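Re: the multi-chain job from yesterday

Posting the exact lines I submitted so nobody has to dig through the queue logs.
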Amino acid sequence: MDAVTRTPVPVNEPVRQYQPGSHERAVLESKIKELTGQRAELTMTIGGTQQMAAGEPIEVVQPHNRHHVLGRLGNATSVDVAAAIYAAKQAAPAWRALSFDDRAAIFLKAADLLAGPWRATLNAATMLGQSKSPYQAEIDAAAELIDFWRYNVYFARRLLSEQPESAPGAWNRMEYRPLEGFVLAITPFNFTSIAGNLPTAPALLGNVVIWKPSPTQQLAAHYLMRLFEAAGLPPGVINLVTGDGQAVSQVALPHPDLAGIHFTGSTGTFQHLWRAVGENIGRYRNYPRVVGETGGKDFVIVHPSAEQGSLAAILIRGAFEYQGQKCSAASRAYVPESVWARFRDDFLAQVESLTIGDVTADLSLFMGAVIDGRAFAKHAAAIERARSRASINVLAGGRYDDADGYFVWPTVLECSDPADEVFTTEYFGPILAVHVYPDSAYEQMVAQAADAAPYALTGSVVATDRAAIAHATEALRYSAGNFYINDKPTGAIVGQQPFGGARASGTDDKAGSIFNLTRWVSARAIKELFVPPPDYRYPHMG
Amino acid sequence: MRGAYVEAFGVVVGRPLIQLPQTAGRSESEVFFDALALNGVDTRIDGGPERLLDPFSAELAAVLAARRDDLVSQGRLMPGAAEALAAVAKLEGMAQTVLTGNSKPNAMLKLRAFGLDGYVDFDIGGYGTEAYPRGTLLGVARQRAADKHGVPLADLATVYVADSPVDVHAARVGGAASLAVAGGRASAAELREAGPDAVLPDLTDTAGLVNLIARLTEAP
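And the result, structure tokens for all chains:
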């Protein structure tokens, strides 16, 4: 089709509220019931064919009801991963030959399907498999993923429109080639939207993908794959392999056609991937693009001038929504003595009153369970360590119980030592460490907090004093890739706050923005000279 | 082998196979699904046609085993094939296997009928009962060889001895060099058009074939 088309102008998908008695709540409840009653066979999808991975079986359970099995997946073997790689290679020429509009239409359709008929399925699967409340599922599996797809199409078109100048007598053009090879997308448990975005952003730009989701997100990932198919994604463009990733490491990382890694997950895993790329650097046809978003030790710095009205909401939502399992979750707060004295009791009472339980049985709960036994054990150990330290008071929570589900109660630790591990180590759970500082020491506090942790993902300052805001903004320039003023450090919205951080937190390639998309193309500059010179000699040669 | 298909189909599907689809160069599963459609079998039965595939493959293997003598009398061994397999097997660090539309048991039966099975490692092959297209299947077989011999896939040099243009393209996808041999389903000219790494008119020049394979598997 010869046309310079315009892609639809994206707007953020409205977030549904799921009030008691609403139609959307009833639809969601019936979908939860349907998926709860099934025991899904969580297949791989390779070259469009679904089959169980050949390795040992892994059960997917409800984190809040850990004896209830939702489905079963197999651990992908080296042969399964090889099949995925070659199926991708087989699909690449036809996918790459499709026009951008054709590829974009598939993802725009996926967004509309998710906004409509698939919404309840993805939300219910995310609630059941990842223990999210209805609202937490809605802002993730529905709203954010729809936004990723619509905005990525819009940003990709802008990227393709970026063209060089042409001098008289010549025409210069730039084309944005898909990478030569396959992109490996490794996605985390905590956001279905990231699971959906990491394989599709490279695919939109014409790449073929091997997608390895976290086993604990596999239920929602399984339905995402079905949604891609329903939207018309051709077989082999995104190949889903299941399991723990061992075989992916063994086969895909040293493969000569590895063209890129799109990763969200732990810092340790990201460093393993980068190290493997380094070790194999001589084998590749191209230097692989390595894009990763990992952890955070995200801060809230309160100034004595802060308005107290919203402070509890900032800290509670920032630290405890989705059990603190967001990369952006607030896990350290610095509060001046004067504010703490007035604010503490009310804040702690609110924390103690937060409701926690089976989020799929009672849709009014604030929190569910942490993702699995490993996370539970890590949080329990952090709480026990805190109890054993003289410098730390456990002010709220501190309870954990895994009899039925992996429940860790929202916990507030007050610690007098700002260098303690509670201010530097990412627990990835509902644990907030508070350091109370003298009102006169704001600038020193900012300076200490700026570099206390190795991460630099998100952070916020709460103040009304403009000089204090200006100071923090400058002093914390490299301490967060997403910096908030008088807001919680979580809840970035696609198109509004491009997300990502540097230092140990990742490559800061800003998911859901044009900056991320540039990583999945390799530009080719084309110069066409219309009237070539008749002679090699220059005028100065006489 | 039409007779074997007819017999196995009748046993598993419970109705006669009247129209046999094209079988050459196609996988057992493709042929079976086509046969179901061509013969008007209602595939909306519980679990769909996939449910019948495994029983069909097993039955076909049993029928072929019972008709072993037919394999020898109706099958055709390309001149030089046995000598070629024997000579290539002597190359240092070489493993040989098959990439075929047949199921593994049927591939074994057919090669055994001609006494060629001793040169072939069936563990590392790719078979028609696996749901992948040919190029993907070649990658799968290469990974099996890499696993079995403890060699990284990237260091595994592979030659795909191909007798159709489709196979030459599959070699490119699956990461192998292609040595096209005419005398099967395609002429040398048709094969050359597909752009293989080398072409031979047949398998009779054993020394030439061994040299070509040795050259195509040399470390770069």
